[in-house]
Amino acid sequence: MTLTETEELDAVTFEVLKNAFVTAVDLMSEQIMRTCYSFVIYARDFSSALCDAAGNTVMQGSADIAVHVGTLHFQCKAVLEEFGSDIHPGDVFAINDPYRGGTHFNDVSFIRPIFVGERIIGYAQNKGHWADIGGTVPGSFDVNAKEHFGEGLRITPIRVFSRGKLLHDVAQLLVSNTRSPYISMGDLNAQSEATAVCEREILRLVDRYGVETVVTAMEAAQGYVERLVRHRLTELPRGVWETVDYLDSDPARPEGLIPIKIKMTIDGDGIHYDLRGSAPAVATFLNSGYGTTHSALYAGTKTFFPDVPLNSGFYRVVTAEIGEEGTVVNAGWPYAVTGFCSGPYEKLMNGIFEIWSEVMPERAMACAFNLEYLLVGGKDARTPERPYFMWYDWMAGGWGARHNRDGSEATSPLFGAGLAVQPVEGQERLSPVLTSEHRIVPDSGGPGRQRGGCGLEKGGTLTDCHATVMSYCCDRARSVTWGILGGLPSVPHGVWMNRGTEDEKFLGATFSGVPVVPGDAFVRPSAGGGGLGDPLTRDPAAVLEDVIDGYVTLDRARIDYGVLIHPVDPELDQYELDVIGTERTRRCIAGKRADWLRTDPHEVAARYRSGELDMLDLVRQYGVIVDWGTGELHENTTRQYRDLLHRRSEAHWER
Question: Which residues form the Hydantoinase B/oxoprolinase domain (predicted)?
Answer without folding.
Answer: 10-535
